Known about the structure:
Oligomer: single chain
Helix content: 40-55%
Structural class: alpha/beta
Shape: extended
Radius of gyration: 32 Å
Amino acid sequence: MLLALPDRSSLPDDVEALKDLLIETVQRAQVAALDARSAIERLELQLVTLRRTVFGIRSERIAGQADLFDQKVALPLPPQNNLTITYERRHRGGGRPALPADLPRVRIEYELSEAERAQFACVQPIGEETSQTLEFTPARLVVLEHARLKYRCEDSEGTSTVRTATAHPSPLPRSNAGPGLLAHVLVSKYGDGLPLARQERIFNRHGAMLSRKTLCDWVLAACELLGRLREPLHRHILGAPVVFSDDTTLKLRTEEVRGRSVTARLWGYVAAGWQRDESKAWVDYPKAVLYEFTEDRRGEHPQRFLARFRGYLQADDYAGYHGLFRGKRVYHVACWAHARRGFFDIARKDTTPGLAHDALAWIRQIYRVEREIRGRTPEERQRERQQRTRPLLDRFRQWLIGIERDLLPKGPMAIAVRYVLSNWRALRRFTRVGILEADSNLVERCMRPVAVGRKAWLFAGSRRGGEAAATALSLIESCKLNGIDPYAYLRDVLARIGGHRIDRLAELLPFNWTPLPASQPA
């Protein structure tokens, strides 16, 4: 905002009045300069963030992170990274790495030609030289003919009837899609980000003219059949000691206006943590993720989903979660990755090390401890965090309070500092409980397939399509969390779920799943 220049005739003739006017003008100019400086910093940060989003890499790393210290700050300095690097020189054998031993092998033998044998009087085999090549066999479509045999049956009284054998050729009524084909379509779309339009062209190359509408109907019907597993999976999530939560956007086509879309949401809830077994030993709680589709981002959605949850919720500082924390039954565990992100965006913009780089150095020491204690028991993790991380956090907080008073109130650095200080209790909670993590990167990784998928299939055509995506992603990503092949799982479950008892559906969840021998993929 420009300051209006006074007219010469309107200036007072009294010297003291002129001094007062000068002081007032300078003060107004200083306030305007501070506001302008804050606005410029915010706009620069937005520009850098936009350029990195469009043109740059997504990895939150900064070149030269080893030298991020500014000695001119007269406050507790970030701990130095004096690392002693040791290594052993290993002899690397030449040649390419060996092919996986679990892949099927086909032996091809090569004999001397007749002309080569004719050159010698006697030819005796003395051994062989072998080499391996990796070959690809294209997928193929097979038509299975289901022949239900019919019998004339006669009882002891001579009464006869006709009986036909029972068959279940497809999991879907009035459909000719087998469970293997349905599983392939689901995994290709939601696991590999391959939209149905591309799958249509692939199937056409294999000789099957499957329209996109047919594939879409199969996806919706199969996901609604698999939707029976959502309730037992939801109960498993609510029984976890720790739940990680996050959400992301998803375009939803509106039915009112053709071609128009609104921003819907996919919420991800990951069950994790540790629990004690019957022998009082610590074991991992079976990991699983359940996605929920909503048409908006109102806070009532996570509060409804987690209404019966008791434990620790590891998430960002979204206001919609706050209602869960008032009853003292759900404890908030904040994410250091989110806290770090504010400083990272500033450090990415600045070419010379400054306060943001120093803040990253403090946080880096937290993760250094986490790397060293990874895989240990909760008691050991808690002890190490209390001895090493807790004092580090206390000094970091003192440093943040010391620099906050000199920052522009509306500047990006002040906003990043206030985010950490306002969530300090939740950010420090992981040091008190060994089953907790320092960040919510587990659920962040589970949200990545959604971001990859929406770049391929762009939007959900209806609310039904959004709910189908949530169901398919829940089962596929839960398989990945448990080291299970999603295709083998879905092929087996689609073949069995129609006749499975409703009160025993939990047996078909990925972490409980045991395939039937006859349903294993060839």
